[in-house]
Backbone:
């Protein structure tokens, strides 16, 4: 992405930074790889675009929200994220198999959830299918796809049920899955846990319009996607067929 920013920057030197939409179109259309590009291309374009909006706000001496149409609200609800890696003064998103705060046992999940709620969060997000209970090793793609055996489905349900019981009915639970599942395992897990009032099921599988619609139609809970979608054109089909209820664009 850093290399992409450097490459794209050479295309716009000398242009008026206030012409951000003109510049965006140039970046998108001036290279063969730009149109319908993925995370590398759009990371570069977005980084430059955000910088241009910052320049525009400073030039007109107003907050950027004024240029985008106005501020709708003063506060935003937040959630405690990725509790499978622990909560508090720890290095989260660890890829180490034996990181001390990784949640492997039911007690780990309950402890992490209670810590976040004690800080005032009324919504938490957890990937319940990251670490194995027996030794804490990280699950692989092989473990998380295809029709799952009963013991794995039961394990996930036990974890969700324990967290729900620990935090009570008034704290929302987002079930994260990082697109690691496929359509079959996503539906299995969704059906097993939806009775525990899941706020939404995040990235249940790779974002494909038809498989996402299949999952959405099979479950009684909202589906979220967006971190792996790029541009208005890739988002549009998910809105049109209503397969996604919560959209999560990566700025």
Residues:
């Amino acid at each position: 992405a850093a290399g992409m920013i450097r490459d794209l920057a050479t295309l716009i030197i000398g242009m008026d930074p206030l012409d951000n939409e003109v510049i965006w179109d140039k970046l998108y259309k001036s290279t063969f790889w730009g149109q319908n590009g993925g995370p590398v291309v759009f990371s570069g374009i977005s980084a430059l675009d955000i910088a241009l909006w910052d320049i525009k706000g400073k030039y007109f001496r107003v907050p950027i929200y004024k240029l985008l149409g106005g501020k709708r609200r003063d506060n935003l609800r937040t959630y405690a994220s990725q509790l499978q890696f622990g909560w508090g003064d720890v290095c989260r998103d660890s890829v180490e198999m034996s990181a001390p705060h990784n949640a492997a046992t039911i007690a780990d999940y309950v402890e992490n959830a209670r810590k976040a709620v004690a800080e005032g969060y009324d919504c938490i997000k957890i990937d319940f299918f990251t670490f194995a209970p027996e030794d804490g090793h990280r699950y692989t793609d092989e473990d998380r796809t295809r029709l799952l055996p009963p013991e794995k489905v039961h394990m996930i349900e036990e974890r969700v049920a324990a967290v729900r019981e620990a935090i009570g009915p008034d704290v929302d639970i987002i079930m994260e899955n990082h697109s690691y599942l496929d359509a079959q395992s996503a539906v299995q897990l969704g059906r097993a846990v939806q009775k525990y009032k899941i706020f939404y099921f995040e990235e249940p599988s790779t974002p494909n319009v038809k498989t996402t619609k299949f999952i959405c139609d099979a479950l009684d809970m909202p589906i979220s996607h967006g971190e792996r979608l790029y541009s208005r054109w890739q988002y549009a089909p998910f809105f049109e067929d209503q397969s996604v209820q919560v959209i999560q664009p990566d700025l």
Remarks:
- The chain has ten helices and five strands.
- Strands lie at 123-126, 172-176, 198-202, 223-225, 246-247.
- The mean pLDDT is 93.
- The first strand starts at residue 123 and ends at 126.
